[in-house]
Amino acid sequence: MFNTSSRIPTARTAPGSLPVADITQALQIAHAYCQERSELLTPLRKKVLSLLLQSGRATKAYTLLDEMRKIHPGSAPPTVYRALDFLQSVELVHRIESINAFSVCHDLTHCRHGILIVCQSCGEVAEVDGPGVHHELVNKIQSTGFTLVRGELELKGFCVKCTAKTM
Ligand SMILES: [Zn+2]
Ligand SMILES: [Zn+2]
Questions:
Q1: How much distance in Å is there from the Cα of 117 to the middle of ligand 2?
Q2: CATH at residue 131
């Protein structure tokens, strides 16, 4: 796990712009993780993951496409979307629906399907690790007769910096 520096067990904030060594390490961990699952972290998928790691926050697909085009001028949207689909399918990346963006799971290869809280202004994401809360909420949802479509729950908010800006 690459994000072991956090001392707060219940809320992990975005890794921010990681030093290059950490990104390299994160990519190595992701690579090994995919291999274990007989999945292939192709150079393209790896590049998209590394762009998300560099960004350190939820990032829109077209921003990723712009970044890709700086390296590979001919990149077409489907290539980025397919890479994002893959990264989501192996649970390395979360899709953040409220702002239509993507962010690397803060636990990278150990997602606990916690509760995501998303800054609606800058895209910073924190993952709240509360299995009890999550479980209780899912039970309550089921008691209404509904089934949750996806494992993770996403809440909207403003991060510390953006809250300070509006005050
Ligand atoms: Zn996660
Ligand atoms: Zn913010």
A1: 11
A2: 3.30.1490.190
